[in-house]
Amino acid sequence: MVGKARRQRLHRPAPRLPDPAGPGPGPGCWNAPAGKDWDFSSSDIFSGLNIDPNTLVKKLDLDSRSIISSRTGLEEKPILSKKEKMKLRKERWLQKIESVKLAKQKQKAEAKRKATPVVGDMQPLMEALPELSDLTAGVRDRKPPKRHVKAKSEPVDFCLMKQAQKHRLLEQEVAWFHEVIANPTYKANPLMAISEHLSKRLRQEEEGIMQFSPDSGGCSLASSLQRAGCSERSSCRH
């Protein structure tokens, strides 16, 4: 392999123009006669200035210093964890967002008020409207209307009844049973009384006028016997 040949670099100085006037002071140089140069080493700048040394000494009083400068370095900053710093940063960010929202709401409300047309004289309208005290007094004196709640019809089927309704129906049936046993018509001829009751009930079912209710004894044997006894008593009286 042949190495790379390096060229020798030569510095060529810049050519100088010949000075026909000969050597002399150039422009901007100090031109003064010999022996009359200024001697600044022997001159005193503050020779004519009188300064009192007491004015140069100044003491800083604690009362004259500001609160910030006096407290700087005395209070130690609390050391916060990374989570606490993130929490504080988040709270500051939420406060900024809330302030921006409030500012936008104020701007919208102001724009809405500006867009509302101004109606001339408002005094007649104020005189026509009632006062706030009259309105509050009327609201206090006014009674709320009563709500009419429709009573729900109780179910006829025993399986659909609630536990309280079933218990009430059983108690009513027991009371009817005791009334039937104590009835003199049933004691005289039980089969006749039961057959009459069944015939009346079938007739009512065919006509569609029978209404069964646990609280009413309209279709019970005891009620039919009571009606039969009452009819017999009325016929005997006549």
Overall description:
There is one protein chain. With 238 residues, the protein is an all-alpha fold. It has a domain at 168-206 and 213-237. The chain is built from 8 helices and no strands. Helix 5 runs parallel beside helix 8 (221-237). The radius of gyration is 61 Å and the shape is elongated. Residues 1-14 have a biased composition (Basic residues).
Distance between the termini: 160 Å
The largest β sheet comes out as: none
Mean pLDDT over all positions? 72
What fraction of the residues are assigned to beta strands by DSSP?
under 5%
Q: Low-confidence stretches at least 5 residues in length (pLDDT < 50)?
A: 210-219
Shape: elongated
Question: What integer value in Å does the Rg equal?
Answer: 61 Å
What's the count of strands?
Answer: 0
Oligomeric form = single chain
**Helix content estimate:** 40-55%
Which sequence of SSEs, written as H and E, runs from N to C? HHHHHHHH
Helices, by number, come to 8
Structural class: mainly alpha
Notable traits:
8 helices; single chain; 238 residues; mainly alpha; 0% strand
